[in-house]
Design brief:
With about 70 residues, this protein is mainly α. It has one domain. Helix content is about 40%, strand content about 0%. It is built from four helices and no strands. The longest helix is centred in the C-terminal third of the chain and has 11 residues. The structure holds zinc ion.
Length: about 70
């Protein structure tokens, strides 16, 4: 059952992943959210649903991606 999500990262690793360009880049290239693997991925490598659950710290890390200051 858990295999389905085996490529997704743990929720607790989101902050680290957002600060790791390769992680975000990979999610964007695959077109899948790096947490839940939803295909509706944003520029931050997360889907809208996961973006909505980010903490302030995580949102801060995601902001450069969302605003296009970090480019692939
Ligand atoms: Zn997601």
């Amino acid at each position: 059952m858990r295999r389905y999500n085996s490529e997704g990262i743990d929720r607790g690793d989101v902050l680290l992943a957002l600060n790791t360009r390769e992680r975000v880049r990979l999610a964007r290239r695959k077109g899948r959210c790096m947490v839940c693997l939803s295909p509706n991925v944003t520029a931050a490598g997360l889907c809208e649903g996961c973006l909505a659950t980010l903490t302030d710290d995580e949102l801060e890390a995601a902001r450069p991606w969302i605003e296009g200051r970090e480019v692939c």
